[in-house]
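Dear Dr. H.,

I hope your travels went smoothly. While you were away I took the liberty of generating a structure for the chain from your last submission, since the lab meeting agenda had it listed for discussion. I wanted you to have the full record in hand beforehand rather than looking at slides cold. The sequence, exactly as received, is reproduced here:
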Amino acid sequence: MLIALLIPLGLAILLFAAIMARQAVSRKTKPNLEAAALGAVTNFFDTLGIGSFAPSMAWLKFRKLVPDRLLPCTMLTGYALPTLTQAVIFLTLLGVLVDPVLLVGCVLAVLMGGLLGAPLVTRTRVWIVQMIVAAALLVAAALYMMTNLHLMPGGGTAETLPVPLMIVAIIANFIFGVLLNYGVGNYAPTLVMLSLMGMDPRLAFPIMASGASLAAAGAGVRHLAMGEIDLRIATGLAIGGIPAVFVAAFIVKSMPLEMLRWLVIVVVLYAAIVMLRSALSGRSEERSAAAIRAEAL
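The corresponding predicted structure, in token form, is as follows:
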């Protein structure tokens, strides 16, 4: 079963890299160097369990490198290759310990959610995307804070789940896959959910990475085809992220992360407030425009 997952992951890496490279060459796109540095930093710590989506959104929003509407799609596409790399590493190290039914069920659920959710982002009004992203940032900040205050669930030692909880976990992972398209990372919610269900928290990593990587690759291909991304930023994130994943996985054994999480909390909260204000402003402008049109009629 493990080999059955590793083979499609390897093929996905080759296929996605080829598609992204072809798009970059055809559009004569050069990777953004600042995005490459951001991808290296965030994927390094993502491999250690901090997560990459929230700090990436915070920085991209703070620097105004990507329009708000394109933030989730660009980020999801840019982090597909680094996350695929993470999945191969975690499956090799820990995948053999996880119940294969739970592993495959959750991975396929996230993949289907990611694919079905991809078109929704481009059809959603800008202020709605801003509101969702702001909520995602606030949730991420809360989870970071709970981790630092030792309020996150410690988890159990189980390698599998009873059938009713397994069904709940698979359904939840489908929802997490849909939310990936809006910039809501699946690492934190999956880790909390499986830990609360009594699983060994370490075994959540192959589930999280495998599901997120295939969903990101599948949705990323659709976003590349639709052209609703900033390709300069996406290629920069990918180029910077891949080597950082290897460094974090094979060189770094332990690192004090609490102080870093507190710093991330400040940045993420700032970005969430800015995004929320933009969403409220956009909603107000939309209502004003609708009122003007109604009066004209």
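Two observations you may find useful: The chain has twelve helices and no strands. Residues 258-296 form the longest helix (39 residues).

With kind regards,
E. W.
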